[in-house]
Amino acid sequence: ASSACQAYRASILHFTADPAFDDKAHAWHEDGLLIIDGGRVHAAGDHSQLRDAVPEGVQVQDFRGKLIVPGFIDTHIHYPQTDMIASPAPGLLPWLETYTFPTERKFADGEHAREVASFFLDELLRCGTTTAMVYCTVHPSSVNAFFGESDKRNLRMVAGKIMMDRNCPEFLSDTAEGGARDSEELINKWHKHGRQLYALTPRFAPTSTEAQLQLAGELARAYPDTFLQTHVAENTDEVAWVKSLFPNSRSYLDVYDHYGMMRPRAMYAHCIWLDDHDRARMRETQSAASICPTSNLFLGSGLFDFARADAAQVPLSLATDVGGGTSFSMLQTMNEVYKVGRMGGTYLPALRMFYMATLGGARSMQLEGTIGNFAPGVEADFVVLDPKATPLLARRTARTESLEELLFAFALLGDDRAIAATYSAGRQVHVRDARQDVPEL
Ligand code: GUN
Ligand code: ZN
């Protein structure tokens, strides 16, 4: 038996397609077995079918009564904003001025950055998130600190240095050329170093000159397998500001399009105030939307329009947007996105929310086959969900009568407490503190 082989017995859920468009999108094994070899999925299926595939000498870990799903994927989050989560302001632009910029200033100090990155990654793992698309600050030291901590834990993370060269404090400003040079150096240092992946990160159109957007687009073409991330159409004041800064662009999204920034592996956060022409461009270019419900409700930015996004078949994913977002938990993010859907007349089944938080995220990042489900060969990033994590969750899940009801209970009532354990590349990277457990009911 290979010493790198492990096996886990539990209920198992994962996806092979989008349940919104395919009624055979999920695989559900009530008494399931997940076999890992060399940090990758060897097989996932029914225990009765797979038990003989477990090599002799490999002890099966018994998680019966719990549910194993792929690790959550958070497609938009700011690690430097960890310490300012839950800071109140009347909207996005005053929030950036009052809290965000002063907080990000501290990341010129590499040791401060390292300490925050370490806490941030531990908090993601506590919440069951195994991959995130992460904004660092304008300082290259903030990127080195982040990737250093992620690489140490062997996590599959995507991150990049913010580029911004106008409409921001002097202490956070780079230059078009300096920002591009630093980004290219960081690509060469970190992109595909172990499991680390680089994302070009122009913060948003208002904080970049045309020269900077031009260079960001050129880098996106020169390094087509890197990622790109930015914000778009989050808030109506921001949209009006962009219109005044770029009077010749058809729309806010069109600014990015003009500079060649729409392409596969480009992730656009928020996408609230788009029109149908914008949505068609997202689908055509396979640029993805990152939906950030806790942030959008907290900052009063608006409600993501699922009906119009689905009509245009925009690639969708789910994100926390901490520190604009109010929780690191993708379960809490599902709770809020469900209500955002309801307010727009859309009903989001729990199955679809779990898809968006796993394979949907992987697909929108062009990482299907690497992360996001339990197909053979996929990296073994997974979480163990505990239906008895809290007295209320235990009581409710004891009464659920279908998989959909069970998942819905996790989505609406669950948070970090529901994560019994988290695994990355087959290695346990979080286990819930037993002292927090509730007695058997
Ligand atoms: N737009 C530009 N920067 C930011 C940021 O840090 N957070 C959010 N939510 N929106 C932004
Ligand atoms: Zn953001």
Automatic annotation (TrEMBL):
It catalyses: guanine + H2O + H(+) = xanthine + NH4(+). The keyword Hydrolase applies. Pathway: Purine metabolism; guanine degradation; xanthine from guanine: step 1/1. Pfam families: Amidohydro_1. The keyword Protein biosynthesis does not apply. InterPro entries: Amidohydro-rel, Guanine_deaminase, Metal-dep_hydrolase_composite, Metal_Hydrolase, Metallo-dep_hydrolases. GO terms for molecular function: guanine deaminase activity. Binds 1 zinc ion per subunit. Residues 68-429 form the Amidohydrolase-related domain. Its EC number is 3.5.4.3. Keywords: Hydrolase, Metal-binding, Zinc. Its cofactor is Zn(2+). It comes from the Bacteria. Catalyzes the hydrolytic deamination of guanine, producing xanthine and ammonia. Belongs to the metallo-dependent hydrolases superfamily. ATZ/TRZ family. PANTHER family: GUANINE DEAMINASE (PTHR11271:SF6). This is Guanine deaminase. It comes from Noviherbaspirillum album.
